[in-house]
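sorry for the late reply, my laptop died twice this morning and i had to redo everyting from scratch. anyway the thing you sent over, i finally got around to it. pasting the sequence first so we're on the same page, its 334 residues, then the predicted structure underneath. double check i copied it right bc i was rushing
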Amino acid sequence: SSSSIRLTFSNDVFKNGDDDGVFTVSSRLKDTAGNLSDLHVFSYYYDTQSPQVMDGNHFPVPAGFMGVDYRFPPNNSVVKGPLNVVSAVIFDSRSENGFLGSGIKTAVEASGSTTSTTVVLSIVESFGSMGPGEIVTGSIKFKGDLTEGAPLYGGPSVSRVLFEINVDTISQEPIGLPTDGSFDGIYKMETTPVDMSGNKGDISTSFFLYDTQEPVVSIDVFNETWVTSGVINLSGIATDVGTYPMIAAGYGSTKGTGVQTVEIRIDAVNKFGSSTFPAVLDWTPLNLDKDPTKFKHNQAFNFEFNQKLYGYNGRIRVTARAIDAAGNIGTTLR
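ok and here's the structure:
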């Protein structure tokens, strides 16, 4: 027959981390005939501290890391397409007594009554055809142990959780969000970390703006004789496309305000119409009539360029490009 043994502590263990650590139990069994079993030793870890996301709000972080936002995209950022993956770095909290924790749970799916780390990506303000509040489909992966030390008792002390967006069922590769503007908008990412002991950390929430539309830039030449005289005199306008609601203003990508920089380049052109190397004037930033960091809704940015090309006489090509806050680039040629 079989029987069970229950070990009762004389005092309850603390739940504030003071008693966290590895418990070792040794036992030898003796039956009524006096037979003595071999020594059995087993260990288990006791962990009461919840894991957290490295988002700049939870401290202290493990050695080798800074107390900054390691999420991608970071909170209140602007990103361009294609966007295939969002991610966050999660870490297991260290107890006051020095116990490093049981480690991050890197199981992709929850099983039974246990939970696993989750990432929920949803759109809160749509600029395209996607409805607000809609959840983005995807799958979770983990990128191993990000520390150089040994892993903890159950899992890594620091790991990056990846949320791959719209995974193809055949190739198992993330397709990502469309880049045609239909899924542009403000997104919310919620990350809930879980460790090997089942401790669930705080939900870490971040917002980012997804912008795939290139800004529009146009130039007008005041005097067409600049080709022969060597004087280039032109003006232009740069605007960010799309009529976005005012809620997006804080993210720097509303119409006419997403433009951050306008640059000009001048190339020599041979008789076949091809540019030659090096450029007569390499990419040069132009002054805008407004400070891009102090914008209002639905504004355009004006610029001018007036310069004589000393020592050069021939055919040239002028390229102007506007770059918005997400890094999208719109160009025009003359």
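The longest helix spans residues 226-229.
thats about all i looked at so far, will dig more tmrw
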